[in-house]
Amino acid sequence: MTLAPIALTCGEPAGIGPEIAARAWETLGARLPFFYIGDPRHLPSGTPVTEIHNPMDALHASATALPVLRHDFPADNTWGEPDAQNAHGVVEVIARAVKLVQDGQASAVCTLPINKHVLQSGAGFAYPGHTEYLAALGGVDRVVMMLASPELRVVPTTIHIALDQVATELTPELLEETIWITHRALIQDFGVESPRIAVAGLNPHAGENGAMGRQELEMIIPLLDKLRAERLDIAGPLSADTMFHPAARARYDAAVCMYHDQALIPIKTLAFDAGVNVTLGLPFIRTSPDHGTAFDIAGQGLANPASTIAALEMARDMAIARAGAKL
Predict the structure, then answer these.
(1) pLDDT tens, residue by residue, 71-103
(2) Residue 268, annotated ligand binder?
(3) Is the distance from CB of 116 to CB of 57 less than 8 angstroms?
(4) How far does the signal peptide extend, from start to end residue (predicted)?
């Protein structure tokens, strides 16, 4: 079985997306075929480009040039200065990439960074971010964010909310759904036959038997006991300050954490340049580099493509796991 190439969306043209797309192709070439969806004018000057009309053409074209599925934008690109005229094009490219995966013409979507403010002002973008828009395109209500690297996979149960809201937003239903989505994704997309999941406590020392908070006793422990009775392999709730050293990480396949920084600080410490943002629970594969548009360095040759390369490699590996394909 031949694996279809990966669709790489252009993201915000004025950011570092086009630049790191070109540099990712320089590194990966034919070893990992992908195609860029966007306006060729927005790529760095001198980038070798082959315009394709069929995504499968990228399998051959990638050996000599960056394959580009052309999507014309109304305005040129000025590094670091986003143009609201291009906002609709950015949104259209994401939808186009998802449709190609749904039609079997691409094996996965890898998204380059967008700027939500530009999309909201220029295209009336009605979603908080990439992830929510992708969920709508996929027809699902609930997805989960995973940050992954060779050293560690982490899933925050609550994400972009204030710390004083976490205890209120952290419900048994939310935590249970997060654990189940993580469990299924480890099997389907990461090839882990019997997933081991470590769950962090909310409070210091996982509450220390109620001395430092009662959420563990009243909500987390009963829920984890219920899931263990359903034959999930779960450790926890664990004290977050002892979960991430090498010996501890060897005992689980993914860590489910209670809030944003509890999950992201350890992985960004271990793999700052190579962490990958993966959206779990979609009916298609989506990965993304774990950084933003970086307008301040766009077009200066300073952007590091490592996270984009890792995101493309992870998308390829997930597609192989999901489809049972072999390159």
Answers:
(1) 999 999 999 999 999 999 999 999 999 999 999
(2) yes
(3) no
(4) none
How many structural domains does the chain have? 2
Find the radius of gyration of the CA atoms of the chain: 20
Is 286 known to sit in a ligand binding site? yes
Confidence of residue 272 (pLDDT cuts 50, 70, 90): confident
Q: Are strands 6-9 and 34-38 parallel, antiparallel or unpaired?
A: parallel
Last residue of a domain, one of 225, 251, 270: 270
| Full residue range of the structural domain in which residue 222 is found | 151-270
Q: How far is the CA of 94 from the CAs of 16, 83, 133, 167, 179, in angstroms? A: 17, 18, 9, 34, 28
- The reply, when asked if residue 183 is annotated as ligand binding, is no
Residues 117 and 159 in one domain: no
- Residue 277 marked ligand-binding: yes
> Taking each helix axis from N to C terminus, what angle separates 221-229 and 172-188, rounded to the nearest 10 degrees?
40
Reported as type and span, the H/E element at residue 256 is strand 254-257
Which residue in this structure is represented by tokens 């540099």?
Answer: 23
- Can you state the percent helix, strand and coil of the chain, rounding each to 5? 45, 15, 40
Tokens of 90: 């950015």
**Residues in a beta bridge with 257:** 156
Q: Let me know: does 69 contact 37? Beta carbons within 8 Å.
A: yes
State the pTM of this model.
0.92
Query: Is residue 54 a known part of a binding site?
Result: no
Distance CA(100)–CA(97), nearest Å, equals 5
Residue 249 sits in the same domain as residue 326: no
pLDDT of residue 206 exceeding 90, the answer is: no
Give phi and psi for 279, each to the nearest 5. Answer: -95, 115
